Amino acid sequence: MANDLPITTSEWEVMRIVWTLEKATSSEIINLLVKKRTWKASTVKTLIGRLVQKGMLTATKEGHTNTYQCAIAERTAMQEEATRLFKNMCAMKNGEVLAELIQEIQLSKSDIQKLQDALTAKEQTAPDQVACNCIPKEETTE
Amino acid sequence: MANDLPITTSEWEVMRIVWTLEKATSSEIINLLVKKRTWKASTVKTLIGRLVQKGMLTATKEGHTNTYQCAIAERTAMQEEATRLFKNMCAMKNGEVLAELIQEIQLSKSDIQKLQDALTAKEQTAPDQVACNCIPKEETTE
DNA sequence: GTCCTCCGTTTACAAATGTAATCTACAATT
DNA sequence: AATTGTAGATTACATTTGTAAACGGAGGAC
């Protein structure tokens, strides 16, 4: 079960296709991606191969042809990426970034409801200030 | 004005230091990072050099020594990263991911207030459903 | 003034990534 | 059966990234 996933941007595009199709053959993936990106079929094959190596895709041989499936759920992968990103940015500014992000992405009414609930719950225990975590331990001029 | 910033994770760590210090000499950056990470001084120097090339840091020579400053605001860079990430993930699932993200990161009371306001505003025009944007144009088996 | 140190620059080199051609073996066609 | 189209595997190669040593000059220590 791929846990750390150092998955690259190109590979991510392949994953999105397979996540959506649930299972797919290489030609399905290739057809879709050759259109979307200007990749050659070969390129997509390479990416598929690397994803299999990385344990992100499983290949099940059916006759001569492989059927590819994702070894990790899309939601999980997305969550990990999002969390990793925010953990690597200044904690103090996360809130503002999130606020602007909310304005920039599409959200459904029910998404908004969920978010509001989550916020309300969090409000109880929220601190007045979040400390910046940008500088390692010791102080500047130490 | 660095606009696209293909900035790597290691480089990001250097940026965080300089963003926080506002201006810094190489030795300040090196001292902090050699502790935090197990990098050699040389490694940090390389990263600084690359960031200058990429236009993310400016180097102002004061005598023999450089003073480094960031060429792009931290908030801007953070916002770009966050937006880019979410734009590259399944639009339909962004809401859920965000909801869980909110639970995982630290937020101050005022952050929460801002988020709630942003959500309330957005609620007006929110659709009932957000469409998945994972598969390129043409349909699966076309 | 000489030597050492520190800083910036240059060079190094392996691994990962982006991008792809080629080769090989089965499958479908004729 | 011979041919041809494909799918998967192997190989290729430039660029980027991670990680660092080496070099060369300016300033400070003595």
TrEMBL record, chains A, B:
Single GO molecular-function term? DNA binding
Report whether Ion transport shows up as a keyword of the record. Answer: no
Family statement drawn from the similarity comment of this UniProt entry: Belongs to the BlaI transcriptional regulatory family.
> Record's SUPFAM superfamilies?
Winged helix' DNA-binding domain (SSF46785)
Tell whether Membrane is among the UniProt keywords.
no
| Designated name of the protein | Negative transcriptional regulator-copper transport operon
By its UniProt entry, which Gene3D superfamilies does this protein fall under? Winged helix-like DNA-binding domain superfamily/Winged helix DNA-binding domain
Q: Which GO terms describe its biological process?
A: negative regulation of DNA-templated transcription
Top-level taxon: Bacteria
> InterPro entries under this entry?
BlaI_family, Cu_transp_CopY/TcrY, WH-like_DNA-bd_sf, WH_DNA-bd_sf
This protein's species is Pediococcus damnosus
> What residues form the membrane-spanning segments?
none
The coiled-coil segments of this chain are none
Which keywords does this Swiss-Prot/TrEMBL entry list? DNA-binding, Transcription, Transcription regulation
